[in-house]
Design goal:
single chain; alpha+beta; globular
Length: 447
């Protein structure tokens, strides 16, 4: 299992970056969530993408639950959130084009169905009981198990949406430095991308309610995993963490079975009570790794999981930020040196306060996350300048950081802008948000 992880080590010239983003579908006529079935349902959207744009279906029990094309996939989250998992690409310019193509295709299909998609971190209006459930076997088992671990776990499944970036590492030592640096500053990302201030049609009390929901999902598999900062951390320690985490389910021979809350280690040893004497396959190990939800997740690459979903301009800002820090040695080392002295208690406090305070979160008695944001963004911009990946107009990838610089300089997160609208021109209603934040294509321009 450790060898499985080490196979993720990738020569620097082969490094790629991938981006994933989720979004909430709604009917434009009444803003209600889109069900799976029906003439304007999620299934109709998937089938429209297949028919009009050549996507291949992913089927479960004969029903389309996702799509595949050219290394990318479209999948369904439990409450009908549609996710684009992009292909591993060389530049953020390519990621932007991939996202724009996806949004244009999705928009063409949705136009005919009078539906649309919303870019925000948590469902702002509809309570859990009004959210449709997608027909995926794993979600049925997760829906039964996770509420025994955290009282907001079902909200996590059905009422949150995120944008993620996936990045490579060159060696175990490179992985460790990237993991520690990115895990420490995930609260900064939560603050910069905070975009979920509403729940059930009213202010939620946090600027990133999505991040707050994740704090009460499942302590066995979520959060800031402090052992990453301990001496000797590496692939083996993460494997031990994964082995000792209870299984959400078992997927074998095309069928889902209850995991029983049994650690994967017992399955490896052949002592799982549901499958005595049987042992897992590497495919099952890979599936288990995907059911761990820490703020940074290790597979054969690193997944950055701290950001709320946002508008089209913010999607590419996330991979640009992480590429500028993690793919340039100078930027990576300078950011790590800035935060290496944080104590475990300090990291935990910042992690807990960022969903509520965003950029106003104090780091110590001298600086806040806003101060750190300006420092980190400058380092990311320098990294992207040095990486020097230009588009046809001669712009490097730092153009995708512009929206984050605006947020950091102002100190006002996207969530605070939405709250200003709610208390002002929206007259205490979240309904206008749906059309104002509806997804459309985005094109970054040179300064």
């Amino acid at each position: 299992l450790i060898e499985y992880m080490t196979q993720g080590c990738t020569p620097r010239h082969q490094w790629r970056i991938g981006c994933e983003h989720e979004k909430f579908g709604f009917r434009r006529a009444d803003l209600t969530p889109i069900p799976y079935d029906g003439p304007d349902g999620v299934r109709a959207i998937l089938e429209g993408m297949m028919e009009r744009f050549g996507w291949a279906p992913i089927l479960e029990n004969g029903k389309p639950i996702g799509l595949l094309q050219d290394g990318a996939s479209v999948t369904l989250e439990p409450g009908g959130q549609v996710e684009l998992s992009g292909a591993p690409l060389e530049t953020i310019h390519q990621i932007q084009q991939e996202i724009n193509t996806h949004l244009e295709q999705l928009g063409a299909v949705c136009h005919d169905l009078n539906t649309a998609f919303l870019g925000i971190g948590a469902q702002p209006k509809w309570p859990f009981d009004d959210i449709p459930w997608m027909p995926k076997g794993r979600y049925r088992l997760m829906r039964a198990y996770l509420p025994t671990k955290g009282h907001l776990s079902l909200d996590m499944m059905a009422r949150t949406a995120t944008v993620q970036a996936n990045l490579d590492f060159e060696s175990e030592a490179d992985m460790v430095l990237k993991f520690r640096t990115s895990l420490a500053i995930q609260p900064l990302v939560t603050a910069l991308f905070a975009n979920s201030p509403f729940i059930n049609g009213a202010p939620a009390g946090q600027l990133s309610h999505r991040a707050e929901i994740w704090r009460y999902t499942d302590p066995d598999r979520c959060g800031a995993i402090p052992f990453v900062f301990e001496p000797g951390f590496g692939f083996e320690r993460y494997v031990d963490y994964a082995l000792d985490t209870p299984m959400l389910f078992i997927y074998r021979n095309g069928q889902y079975m209850e995991g029983g809350g049994v650690p994967f280690r017992r399955y490896l040893e052949g002592t799982h009570p549901a499958l005595p004497g049987q042992h897992p396959t590497l495919d099952e190990w890979e599936t288990h790794l995907s059911t761990l939800f820490p703020d940074v997740r290790l597979k054969r690459y690193l997944e950055m999981r701290g950001a709320d979903a946002g508008n089209s301009a913010n999607i590419c800002a996330l991979p640009a930020l992480w590429k500028g820090i993690l793919y340039d040695d100078e930027a990576l080392n300078e950011v790590w040196q800035r935060i290496a002295g944080w104590t475990p208690e300090q990291r935990q406090r910042i992690h807990e306060e960022a969903p509520r305070e965003a950029l106003k979160t104090p780091i110590n008695d001298r600086e806040t996350l806003q101060d750190l944001a300006l420092f980190v963004l400058e380092k990311a911009r320098g990294g992207l300048h040095r990486l020097d990946c230009k588009n046809s107009d001669g712009c490097d990838e730092s153009i995708f950081l512009d929206t984050l610089f605006q947020i950091a300089v102002s100190g006002q997160s996207p969530a605070e802008t939405l709250l200003d609208a709610y208390h002002g021109r929206w007259n205490g209603s979240v309904d206008p948000l749906f059309l104002e934040e509806e997804y459309e294509s985005f094109y970054a321009t040179c300064r």
